[in-house]
């Protein structure tokens, strides 16, 4: 079917079942497929296995699924913005695999490229390679399940650890523009993990802010070719949050500008 557009997000995620694995795009709250995540929440599925750079915040993104205890296991790199995540992990309610960020990106890319595994120096000499990272805690705070040691090989005198590729049953991604064939263009920083997740899903569902006709996108501008995308949903004015707002002291800015000006910079 060349026209991959679905009428609604709920239609597009309707066959995601209990226990399904999801690769979810976004970095922090940038490029988050929030409408699709809300549709998964509304569908009532549970025991999900998620792969994402982070797990949203307490009341947004994957954090909404966590809040309702719909996620059984998650793989990610950064989890510092979600108190409920920490509570579930430390109490033994959630299984967590922490992965170096670059390794996570490459595991997703490799999965989409059909590469089963690869060697990387990242993590050598740490629990990432040696094993022992807590995957799941017991209710008393002891480690119920720890990571296994990974294969180490030496190439040209340097140690490398073997990492397995990641593929998931579904991928959820957000794009600025898409066409009916599934070709996608991401906006600026929202490109982040979205292209990698799109490749790693056996069925990839893309929410797009703007739908154009096939041929409207110059081929050189396409970030994710339609061959990786099975479903497209148009979302209007999706909520876009700023993860953390910071304000610099006005006097400090003035002092910096004055110093720069005096120095001739």
Overall description:
With 265 residues, the protein is an alpha/beta fold. The chain has a domain of 178 residues: Glutaconate Coenzyme A-transferase. Helix content is 25%, strand content 27%. The chain contains eight helices and 13 strands. Strands 1, 2, 3, 4, 10, 11, 12 and 13 form an eight-stranded mixed β-sheet that branches. The protein has a three-stranded antiparallel β-sheet with strand order 5-9-8. Strands 6-7 form a two-stranded antiparallel ribbon. α4 links the parallel β3 and β4. α5 crosses α7. The longest helix has 13 residues.
SSE order and pairing:
Blueprint: H1 9-12, E1 21-24, H2 34-43, E2 48-51, H3 62-67, E3 71-76, H4 83-90, E4 95-98, H5 101-113, E5 117-120, H6 127-130, E6 134-137, E7 143-146, E8 152-155, E9 158-164, E10 168-179, E11 184-185, H7 194-200, E12 201-212, E13 231-234, H8 250-262
Parallel strand pairs: 1-2, 1-10, 2-3, 3-4, 10-12, 12-13
Antiparallel strand pairs: 5-9, 6-7, 8-9, 10-11
Helix pairs in contact: 5-7
């Amino acid at each position: 079917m060349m026209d991959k557009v679905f009428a609604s997000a709920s239609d597009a995620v309707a066959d995601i079942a209990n226990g399904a694995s999801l690769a979810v795009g976004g970095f922090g709250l940038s490029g988050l497929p929030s409408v699709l995540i809300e549709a998964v929440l509304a569908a009532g599925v549970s025991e999900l296995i998620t792969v994402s750079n982070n797990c949203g915040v307490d009341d947004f993104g994957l954090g909404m699924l966590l809040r309702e205890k719909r996620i059984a296991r998650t793989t990610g790199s950064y989890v510092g913005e979600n108190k409920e995540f920490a509570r579930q992990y430390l109490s033994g309610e959630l299984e967590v695999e922490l992965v170096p960020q670059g390794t996570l990106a490459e595991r997703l890319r490799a999965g989409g490229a059909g590469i089963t595994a690869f060697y990387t120096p990242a993590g050598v000499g740490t629990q990432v390679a040696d094993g022992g990272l807590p995957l799941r805690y017991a209710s008393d705070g002891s480690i119920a399940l720890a990571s296994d040691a990974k294969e180490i090989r030496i190439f040209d005198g340097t140690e490398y650890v073997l990492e397995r590729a990641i593929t998931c049953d579904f991928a959820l991604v957000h794009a600025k523009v898409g066409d009916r064939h599934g070709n996608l263009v991401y906006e600026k920083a929202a490109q982040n993990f979205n292209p990698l997740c799109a490749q790693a899903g056996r069925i990839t569902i893309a929410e797009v802010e703007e739908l154009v006709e096939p041929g409207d996108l110059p081929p050189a501008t396409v970030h994710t070719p339609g061959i990786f995308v099975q479903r497209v949903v148009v979302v209007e004015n999706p909520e876009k949050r700023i993860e953390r707002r910071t304000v610099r002291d006005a006097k400090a800015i003035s002092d910096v500008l004055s110093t720069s000006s005096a120095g001739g910079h």
